[in-house]
Write a structure and sequence with these properties.
Shape: globular
Number of helices: 10
Distance between the termini: 51 Å
Largest sheet: 7 strands, mixed
Helix content: 40-55%
Number of strands: 7
Strand order of the largest sheet: 3-2-1-4-5-7-6
Radius of gyration: 17 Å
Order of helices and strands: HHHEHEHEHEHEHHEEH
């Protein structure tokens, strides 16, 4: 029990020390909930493959603070937000915790992960809709109905955008979280950006644990043609 408390203390201190660099102020309760979720991910990871990152300070930096960078790229309050390919819940769950005014949907194709999220989030007092489905299939029920689509560590940008852009209404945006190769992927995705009705608005860079992470903001300027998204095998085989 003492080890768990110590881990939570380390995670909490690292989170607290990292927030000013993002220009974010979060209540103590909010920070505690973020750390409780981080700890829950590490605990569940013992029986389910959720993350390779389990050391408390690394969880705070590479999962919690990294996820919160999207809040510096857009005002999500009162907006419909979908995390496409949420995995263990990043960035969608930290966003839902830090910005409870956002209406967050967590989408992932792996039912076990989604079922765990459906169990743990109410225990932490976190509100989010959890959906088990493939991104290219679920969009038929909610095409162009979200203000923002978020995604982290799902696919290269030219593939990712075909999976996310169809969810976003005109005037909304895709917020794609990327690492050091962000600009290389942007260059590679020029054709996809144009075909999907998007426009590059901004690339925000952050230093996360000594490495450069970026949030690419792509504004939806026109409807995505109904031909997209294609089947995933086709997207992967022949990216836009």
């Amino acid at each position: 029990m003492k080890a768990v408390v110590a881990d939570m203390d380390i995670m909490g201190q690292t989170l607290r020390e990292g927030l000013p660099a993002l220009g974010l102020e979060l209540s103590e309760d909010c920070q505690k909930t973020l750390c409780a979720f981080g700890e829950a991910v590490v605990k569940q990871n013992e029986v389910m493959n959720l993350t390779a990152i389990t050391e408390p300070s690394a969880v705070a930096k590479l999962h919690l603070l990294d996820s919160l960078t999207v809040l510096t790229a857009a005002d999500l309050r009162g907006k419909r937000v979908i995390d496409v390919g949420c995995g263990a819940g990043f960035p969608g769950v930290p966003v839902a915790i830090a910005c409870p005014e956002a209406q967050v949907t967590l989408l992932d194709s792996l039912g076990k992960r989604v079922k765990w999220l459906e169990t743990i989030l109410p225990q932490l007092g976190v509100t989010a809709r959890c959906v088990t489905a493939r991104a290219e299939e679920a969009v038929s029920q909610c095409r162009e109905s979200y203000d923002f689509a978020l995604s982290r560590a799902v696919a290269r940008l030219n593939i990712l955008l075909e999976l996310t852009a169809p969810y976003v209404k005109v005037g909304g945006a895709v917020l794609a979280m990327k690492g050091a190769a962000a600009r290389e992927e942007l260059e590679e995705a020029k054709s996809a950006i144009k075909k999907l009705g998007l426009k590059i608005e901004e690339v925000k860079d952050f230093s996360v644990d000594g490495a450069t992470h970026s949030v690419i903001v792509l504004r939806k300027v026109s409807p995505t043609p109904n031909a997209y998204p294609r089947r995933y095998a086709k997207i992967k085989q022949s990216p836009l």
